[in-house]
UniProtKB/TrEMBL annotation:
Name the UniProt record assigns to this protein: Alanine acetyltransferase
Family annotation (Gene3D superfamilies): 3.40.630.30
Domain N-acetyltransferase: 11-132
Pfam families xrefs: Acetyltransf_3 (PF13302)
InterPro entries given in the database record: Acyl_CoA_acyltransferase (IPR016181), GNAT_dom (IPR000182), N-acetyltransferase (IPR051531)
Keywords from the UniProt entry: Transferase
Native source species: Paenibacillus oryzisoli
GO molecular function, one term: acyltransferase activity, transferring groups other than amino-acyl groups
Length: 179
């Protein structure tokens, strides 16, 4: 479902990313394929420097369908960015990708908190985050971060996922599967 980023999938991902339903919500808005290739090289380098963790989301056939990143990693926290091609909307890939990524972050890395900033008008993303029982609306819990991402006007809602909350959720799911 997730794999480390490499340059071989850039062409497929670029074509998915430039869709008008996806492009406005992508963190790195690349106008040309070469620019997307350059950004992907940068992300790979940032991962080596441990300031970013970036993965390609794959479908059942192993084809790239989107990306998921943890960026601005500082003091065991970072911000999540995710996008999926329109052909894959509404098929559960987003939630499965997040759960897989959180498992990697919280079990294989020293990440404690993941922040998600979601545009208030992006109803699709807000609904996706609100389906995650372990994600909390953090506009008041982490008001300083909320203010920093909305320094000029209130564009984003802030959500957060804590390691312990996610691990507790994982235990409940494992127990339900076992019984």
């Amino acid at each position: 479902m997730l794999k480390k980023r490499d340059l071989h999938e850039c062409h497929s991902l670029y074509n998915l990313m430039t869709d008008p339903a996806v492009f406005p919500y992508v963190r790195h808005k690349c106008q040309f394929y070469e620019q997307y290739l350059f950004i992907t090289k940068q992300l790979i380098a940032e991962e080596e420097q441990e300031t970013c963790i970036s993965r390609t989301i794959l479908n059942e056939m192993g084809h790239p369908i989107g990306t998921i990143d943890l960026y601005d990693i500082v003091n065991k926290t970072g911000f999540l960015a995710t996008w999926i091609g329109t052909r894959y909307f509404g098929k559960g890939y987003n939630q499965r990708a997040k759960e897989s990524f959180f498992t990697e972050l919280f079990l294989e890395s020293n990440i404690e908190t993941v922040f998600l900033k979601v545009r208030k008008q992006n109803i699709r993303s807000k609904k996706a985050v609100e389906k995650l029982s372990y994600a909390k609306l953090a506009n008041t819990i982490n008001h300083q971060i909320y203010k920093s991402i909305n320094n000029e006007q209130q564009i984003y809602d802030l959500y957060q996922v804590e390691r312990l909350d996610f691990l507790e959720y994982s235990k409940v799911i494992q127990h339900e599967v076992a019984t």
